[in-house]
Structures are given as structure tokens and as C-alpha cells.
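Quick check before the chapter quiz. The format below is the same one you will see on the exam, so make sure you can read both the input and the output lines.
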Amino acid sequence: MTCVLEVAIEAARKAGKILMDGMSRPLDVERRVAHDVKLSMDRKAEEAIVSVIRKAFPAHSILSEECGRIGQGGEYEWVIDPLDGTYNYFRRIPFWTTSIAVRCRGEELVGVVFDPCRDELFIAEKGSGARLGDQKLQVSGVAQLSRAVIGVAYSPKEEFMRMNAETALSLATTVDKIRSLGSAALEIAYVACGKLDAFFEYGIWPWDVAAGVLLVREAQGSVTVAARAGGRLDVLASNGLLHDGLARLTGIRPRAAEGPRAGS
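Here is the expected output.
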């Protein structure tokens, strides 16, 4: 597994360098749609990641936001989002990331979330904990919703945008703060390191959360992932202490294994 992690780190850092170089250059907008934008930098970062993976593990399959699925069959699948927070990147807001996860038979084994703007590398290996650089990650100890800082992301799909907005509004007077920072993968990593106490989103894609799910679980937090039609997911990630209460308030119910502190 260590070799797989090393390749994931190499791929994330290579994509990060390309993206950081692109921050100082004019951007090539490939497509504008309601509430979203597609940039050529997404594809360039993806191509760099795929190249590193294919060189090291040509038999592994890949699921990516930009190109969909590459390869079929086999036990190992790489789930990648080359640029999570594209709109932030487009507007030069320095909160975006590269997310890479590796699954074996559907179970996350390795997770890497790399924030090039701060040179922060979040990594997790199943059963070995989560780290930010050399620092071991631990979720927060906040046990009261009234003290909690909750992250939420807003899908560009209006159905889910409304659902997220309505739930965030209903939580606003219950929790201490609601934050929407523009990169789900990085916000979930912030749950793992205790900067946020929880994060939720309806209608998110697997590549946005695959690495973060493992980060939170390995940092002793809890995650609920509920599948929707069409491949989308509802996700609730928390420090575990708040999980039951937030599950009731968000309606995101356990349909997958939760972390060790679930129900605490």
C-alpha cells in the first residue's frame, strides 16, 4: 500500500505544480454553464495525474471527473478530482485542491488531498491513521451543536443547491457558524484536522469525497455516505460526537460503515 500512496502523492504534487503555474497565466475557459465553469486546467491536471498512475499501475482502473472511467475490471480503482474548487480557481480565490483516492474492491485504502496554495498535503492509509505532513490528524472534540462550525458545499445542479441552502439555513441558528468555502474535498480534509467540526452536501460526486472520507475515518471521525440515482451521493462527515444529531437534522442516514466514534 505504501507504494500506492507514494504514487498518489507524486501524482497530486505534479498536478498541483501545473495548477499553481496556471494561476499566474490567463485562463482558457472551455465552457460556461449555470453556476459552474470548465477550464482547460482541469484537463491538464487530470492528464498529469493519469500519466503518473498509468506508468506505475497500467492495470488499475481510473474514475475521474473530467474523462469518466478509464479501464475496466480489476480490484484497484483510482478516484480522482484534478481540481476541486474550479470556480474558486477561476476567480483566483486560493481555496481549491487536488483529490486522489485508491479503492480496492470498493473500499478506500489510500486518500490524498493536496492544497498547493498552502503546500498542505493531507494523506491517509486505511488502518494507519491520517496525517498533514508529519502531523497526525485528529478530529475536533466539539460535542455541542451550538459550538460547532459546519461546512457545506453547493452543487451547481439547482435541485441540490436548494436542498443544501435550505438545510444550511435551518442549521444556522442551531450551530455556531456555517461555512461554504468552495471545495468539498478540502473542507472534508478540514474536518479531519479539526478546523471544521462537520461537513455535509446533497448530490455530490464520488470523486469529490473519496479521499476525504478516508481522511476523516482515519482521524477518528465518522462518515455517512448515502447513494442517489445517477451516481451522486449525500455525504455527512463529522467529528463523530455531533454525528447523530446532524444525521437527524440533515436527513442523511447511515447506509455505509461509519467511523469508530459514530454514536458517541
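If your answer matched, good. The two ends are 30 Å apart (CA to CA).
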